[in-house]
């Protein structure tokens, strides 16, 4: 039984408003609001979240007042290698690259939300997902190398992804795939290609049986865990569905119509508006992969062929998609050397609209735990509240997220402020000019992580020329593959 003073302190901790939505989709707003209200009510009743076992990052199952799980929450500072990771996978600052050099520490949560926002009308069945500022004493804090678990520690407020919990029977790794619906596999594959998902395996495909006596083996697939989509470089993605028989079946007319109406310009605008912290290079990846999908599907390729074009052959050689991009880059470099004015002026593409200061004010005032006085955010310097007006007008995406993290300066170890240090921006424009990115710790190239193509080091004019040449080079490659069928 709690000591009276301790119980009183706990009452105060659970009394404050614990959760605020930072990003909403146009659809399923009522579902997200319902989840948030259920969580608020449960927290007031002192129904704590349950840490999820397994995985490298900190994940929590939040419950409603009936103690039923309603949402999965992943704080951005508890992912693998982040300062407050509860499982010992630490050592990186927020905003630095993870071990694979394609996704930065603390940015997986934004990608989870992006996948949901891009899943128009629930086409691939991604569960409702949003970005929240959420407070709870059960969240993990690492202080001097140890987790601080005392529930009476001061308020712990973090930025996190929040996704609806989906009741399911098992995941795709626990069963054979023969009874998976063709259209479900196609729709998930289409999403994975659009967002260049680098990590699609059976464990992040949930399977739910449908109670249909007429079709006793009918199941539904629910894709989750999209934190490794929209990488900053063309990677070697793992797409397990490539080898499933459903992926060799031609697209239906409905699926082809869906692909045809995809508009990469409109999608970049939407994502930039709702998630302005997503980096510019990630939007370029979205644009490139959407164009690739549209052209490949229009050429008559099936899903497995498109996925294999994105995938390396296992011997470290570039994929067919990378080869096309490499040729396009070479052509741009030749154009640069022969045309003096190319590359002299930076003009932001018209599909990146101005940022709304209201959203930025919310984001800048959000808080997350950085993990004690010895853990720091990666940034360029301090921002005062008066500087927020700068972001009421357009700012380049390549600095937006580092500024976002850097400005979350009032951390939640009580009312104290952590120190923001570091003057070097870890932005994508910092890429080295050689074909590979080097390991920042020892200057050596990472074995097995060769980067053949970079998208971040092109200015806007070069990017425009690159995409034009990319399409030209892609057509004969697709025609050759089609002729083999």
TrEMBL record:
PROSITE patterns attached to this UniProt entry: PI3_4_KINASE_3
Segments for region (Disordered): 417-444
Pfam families listed in its UniProt record: PI3_PI4_kinase (PF00454)
Enzyme class: transferase
Keywords attached to this entry: ATP-binding, Kinase, Nucleotide-binding, Transferase
Domain of life according to the entry: Eukaryota
A GO molecular function held by the record: ATP binding
Assigned EC number: 2.7.1.67
Residue ranges annotated for the PI3K/PI4K catalytic domain, each copy included: 46-346
Family statement drawn from the similarity comment of this UniProt entry: Belongs to the PI3/PI4-kinase family. Type II PI4K subfamily.
Entry protein name: 1-phosphatidylinositol 4-kinase
